[in-house]
Amino acid sequence: MTQRTYSIGEAARLSEISVRKLRFYSDQGLLPPAGRTASGYRVFTDDELVRLDLIRCLRDAGLGLDAIREVLTKELSLVEALKLRLETLEAEIAAQRRVASALRAALRSPQLTEADLRRFLTMTQLSRAERRNVVERFFEKVSDGINIDRKWVRQMIETTVPELPDDPTPEQCDAWIELSSILNDPSFIAKMRANASDAWDRDAFDMEACQAASDAIVREAKQAIDDGLEPTSNTGSAIARQWLEASARLMGRQPDLDFRNWLRAKYAQHDDRAARYWELVAIMRGQRPDSSPNREWAWIVDAMRHHLTD
């Protein structure tokens, strides 16, 4: 059966595109005409109109001319082409979300400078390896010159390197920006060094015993929270005394007045950014900021502050 033929103007009208764009596709080899008139004008058939519809769909999906050409010549399947486009589009969306998050963080700065904006943009675009380097540098500064078990340091790095999914939420991007700021703050590093020195700069420090004691106190706090008890309750005081005694034992000291006064000063100077660190890591992992054990340790710290002031 002989197919109906259309002039370039008719084909453009039926396909609802401009003659100029149809001519462009034809000149690029994507839409060769079915033939030409005696005067040299291009003519098209229904087959070309179907092909033109596919070209338009692929262009609407964001595919470039080269990818479309590969689909039309069967060098690339339609499914493969769309998968590639989707991957590219998702990466672009993720990048734009990171940029938007950086702009939000920059706008929250009371006295925004160009340097601040560059820092925010850079932090949101770091790869996982680069984020890991930020954490590693933090622990290197904290542990430098302190007798810390290197195995423990490696374990902390592995368990605390913040993860960002391929398609992070604005909250996750914001969490990374805030966390990177904390990890690069000299005052926070100095406080963490002081805490590390208290724990490690002694003849012996039993990390396994410390972990066991921490796990036990967290279980006690979890039960108290589940029971609806406040840190200022009698149970809170009991748990605080339990942790005071465990802390003294782990540090080779007696839970006497001197140790109590020393511990009171430590908790009075407690940097809330230490807890915020874990909250931000939780957010980046798609968890609630008060997920366990963050919630329990916040409760324990409040209980210790209250108990030590009695």
Automatic annotation (TrEMBL):
Query: Can you tell me which residues the record assigns to a coiled coil?
Result: 72-106
Q: Which domain of life is it from?
A: Bacteria
Q: Which Gene3D superfamilies match?
A: 1.10.1660.10
Keyword terms of this UniProt record: Coiled coil, DNA-binding
Keyword DNA-binding: yes or no?
yes
Give the HTH merR-type domain ranges: 5-74
Pfam families noted in UniProt: MerR_1 (PF13411)
Q: What InterPro entries would the database entry show?
A: DNA-bd_dom_put_sf (IPR009061), MerR-type_HTH_dom (IPR000551), MerR_fam (IPR047057)
Cite the SMART domains for this sequence: HTH_MERR (SM00422)
Please state what the protein is called.
MerR family transcriptional regulator
Q: Which organism is it from?
A: Bradyrhizobium quebecense
